[in-house]
Structures are given as structure tokens and as C-alpha cells.
Amino acid sequence: MAGRGEWTDAAWERIEPLLPRVDGRGRPWRDHRQVVNGVLWRLRTGAPWRDLPERYGPWQTVYERFARWEADGTWAKLLEHVQVRDDAVGRVEWTVAVDSTVNRAHQHAAGARKKGPQTGTNCKIRAARRRARPSVGPEAG
After folding, report:
1. Which 3 state secondary structure label does DSSP give 31?
2. Among the four residues 43, 62, 118, 137, which has the most C-beta atoms within 10 Å?
3. What is the DSSP letter of 106?
4. Are 92 and 86 in contact (CB under 8 A)?
5. Tens digit of pLDDT for each residue in 29-52?
6. What domain count does the chain have?
7. Full residue range of the structural domain in which residue 69 is found
8. What pLDDT score does 57 carry?
9. Residue at 72 is within a domain
10. % of the chain exceeding 70 in pLDDT
11. How far lies 9's CA from each of 2, 29, 30, in Å?
């Protein structure tokens, strides 16, 4: 029986053949299932590798296997296999999520006019036009 967030027996039977085999040279490898469950625990919790519970083995072993399999494409192969197989039998529900978050720039970053006297070429042209207009009214004499 698998613990929370760990591979079930049925799921493990599907992915185990895709994992690298122990080649018989050097020290024997720690059980792949134990290590993969440790990787899943770490990814699910977001905790540092050093906080990995002892039931998954030494954190260094779990991290090294994770990094090795990332470098050699093992994780990508597992993901592709599971997605293709499950999609073929209708088990994958492809959902699209759109984030409607709106980010606005501060008014000064957005080019809003700053308080104080207007400066710049366009402001000077507008001011000159206002001064050049003929006065209309009783004072215009």
C-alpha cells in the first residue's frame, strides 16, 4: 500500500520498466521506488532536499538520482510515456487555464504627467499658441 503522494502498485508496474537498470558494476543501487517516492515527496512539499524523511533514504542519494535522471532524459521519457498512453485510452483531460491577472504600472512608469510646470517642446508650443490668440471681450480695445 502506498502512502500519501507515493506510487501505487499499479502505477509502479507501468513505469518501472522505463527506469535505468542496475548494471551490476559498483555498489548496488538503492531501490528505485523508494528514491522516486522521495523525489515526489520533495517536489510535492517544496522542502529542501536535506529535510527529506529518512524513509526515502539518504537525501544525497535521492538528489543525485533525481539530477542524473534529469540530465539523461529519464524524467522526460517517463512523462511522455504516461501522457501518450493515458491520452490514447482517454484518461487525460486536457484543460486550458487562463490567468486573468492584471498588472498595472505605477503612474510615473506609465508616462503620466507629473505635477508641476509642464516642460518639453509640445508644452511650449501650446503655451505660445495661447499667448498668440487675440483677446475677445470688453478689454480688447
Report:
1. coil
2. 62
3. -
4. yes
5. 778 999 999 999 998 899 999 999
6. 1
7. 34-92
8. 92
9. yes
10. 56
11. 7, 20, 18
